[in-house]
Amino acid sequence: MEEMEEELKCPVCGSFYREPIILPCSHNLCQACARNILVQTPESESPQSHRAAGSGVSDYDYLDLDKMSLYSEADSGYGSYGGFASAPTTPCQKSPNGVRVFPPAMPPPATHLSPALAPVPRNSCITCPQCHRSLILDDRGLRGFPKNRVLEGVIDRYQQSKAAALKCQLCEKAPKEATVMCEQCDVFYCDPCRLRCHPPRGPLAKHRLVPPAQGRVSRRLSPRKVSTCTDHELENHSMYCVQCKMPVCYQCLEEGKHSSHEVKALGAMWKLHKSQLSQALNGLSDRAKEAKEFLVQLRNMVQQIQENSVEFEACLVAQCDALIDALNRRKAQLLARVNKEHEHKLKVVRDQISHCTVKLRQTTGLMEYCLEVIKENDPSGFLQISDALIRRVHLTEDQWGKGTLTPRMTTDFDLSLDNSPLLQSIHQLDFVQVKASSPVPATPILQLEECCTHNNSATLSWKQPPLSTVPADGYILELDDGNGGQFREVYVGKETMCTVDGLHFNSTYNARVKAFNKTGVSPYSKTLVLQTSEDTDSEEQTLPFPVPSERLPLRRMSPFSSTLNLQPSFPGRSYFDFRSSPHQLSLHSSLQSLNAPGCNFETQSAPYSQLVAWFAFDPGSAHSDIILSNDNLTVTCSSYDDRVVLGKTGFSKGIHYWELTVDRYDNHPDPAFGVARMDVMKDVMLGKDDKAWAITEGGITKGATIGVLLDLNRKNLTFFINDEQQGPIAFDNVEGLFFPAVSLNRNVQVTLHTGLPVPDFYSSRASIA
Fold first, then answer.
1. From CA 543, how far away is CA 586, in angstroms rounded?
2. Measured between alpha carbons, how far is 594 from 603 in angstroms, rounded to an integer?
3. 724/455 Cα distance (integer angstroms)
4. Mind listing the pLDDT tens digit for each residue in 346-396?
5. Element (H or E) spanning 656, and its range?
6. Cα–Cα distance between 524 and 728 in angstroms, integer?
7. Residue 400 and which of 413, 420, 527, 714 are 20 to 30 A apart at CA?
8. pTM
9. Cα–Cα distance list, 455 to 185, 592, 635 (Å)
């Protein structure tokens, strides 16, 4: 009920409405306040002039807002009639509730009539203090506005509910608490006023006196007052005009004011509007309920923000403390290094001091002895020892030769702490603002017609759906382990095409791709089945649809492709198939030989399960000093130290043969040729660790050809120089995944030749075996 109080107060005086009237704009005013804010208008704006001109169609004529401005553009607090040079300006004032109102243009004349009956100035205008709509009063003045008896009743009930105890209505000074109420007089009495004003005798003896609380209830249940017509005060409202939206009396209808309007029974419209108001209140009640729940949520957010702030501050302090601890640990490590250097310098200098001290003592002793010998006068005795002394003196002098009297250690510490990157990182240390993001991107579509294979490599292509509106920041390509195991990420980036190298021959695994942005990741695409080529005895397989031949070596030619070298555990596939589709689309290839003029992959009739492969050196896994050219087929080095480079293709099955020709061979270097694991050391000669198997000597000169034969069926490795086998078998029990490898320095340059058949004599020997 307290929240309703603002609805019951007049916007002018700020108090509860007293005799409220209803303006045509549906707002209410106290009758006295309405009279106080009347403003006199010019004669040309009178209702009579409007009616004479035929412009008035109702009892209330609103002023043209274009002609009349009650507030200046700067809201200075003054109102005036625009368009009239002689129009007076009247300063406005503010009511207790903050609404601007206009005081009367002139003091009201003295009158004994009530405010409702007192005459109003001629050509008066009233402006609603809430919506600022203005209208000119007719001859009836304020009597032309209907009284809001419903609002009066609501105010009475509200004030009665707010009263702690019912007071006597006849006490002149401080009202006493009422003890009875007369139902006929409708007055509350205290005991003294009841005995004085309502004695229980005569006609008053028949009145019924009840307790105040019962009287309050009877007041509420008493029949409502019937409102009368504003034009015909003796007539009660009996009908309702739908067009004018106001109750009318029978005489109004007789006079023809609403002859062409739709008129309905007052009681029916009363029930209809009550029903409409109830329905509207239901919706408003739901909004109010939601608002209350929202307020509860906001209050909970305040508490949650405070808790999160404390937690976040603690986390921030912990992170900064961790950084400080790490810096202190690093400080201790650096100080330990400085102390170690300090002790080392002191030890070297002290050792040199000790050594020089001993040597100087020996030298001084020899010098004193020689001086005493020189003092001897015996020539024969002197000559017996002089040669030996002279040799000792020269030898001792030679021992004090160059460098002996030079400090072995400098006093400076050749250490310089580079803290600029750390300081820059500290200055850049800041919070990462998480922004509201868009939905996740749509599921990518694998483009089967764009997929192609070459050797034991596979190129996959995908795209976003045509109607997708959410952009993707990148894509994640995944492959399984070839045995139905878990998927692994093999590519993360923005490109929509990826060439996967280092796949096993004669193996099968799955591929899928998904998109991601700042919001999250999309669902996976359909699974693409990949199968590498079978043995050379398998039948020729062709592509079921045309793939341009220039697309096949896409890894080298396309600037948009992204090449990856997988870890040794990854087999490969060259058979493409959407398993989830009822009509399987497939792409077969043998990955053994390439039919250059056409679009098909063919096999070669190489015996004994030889898998012919084309590959080049891998710049991604090579040492930084390695220099590649000729489409990564020719390699040299910029360093005098040995550096290692691997081939792009790894082998785990079958027989493989490739050759390397020596293009430059200066100053007798020691290049090494062979195979290695993926994690071989790249800065030492090939074969120095247990990750490589290589040949490093025997007949290697400029123009020489070194052949490498890797037979993984028999698990051995054989080398050839100028088509001559070097010994029987260089290494046996070779098992796992191996990559072609070379180590060299700047004095050597070699070129790789791949896709070669096995030497005939080895094939014959293998056939006989």
1. 8
2. 8
3. 28
4. 999 999 899 899 989 999 999 998 998 898 888 888 888 889 989 999 988
5. strand 655-665
6. 52
7. 413
8. 0.33
9. 113, 6, 21
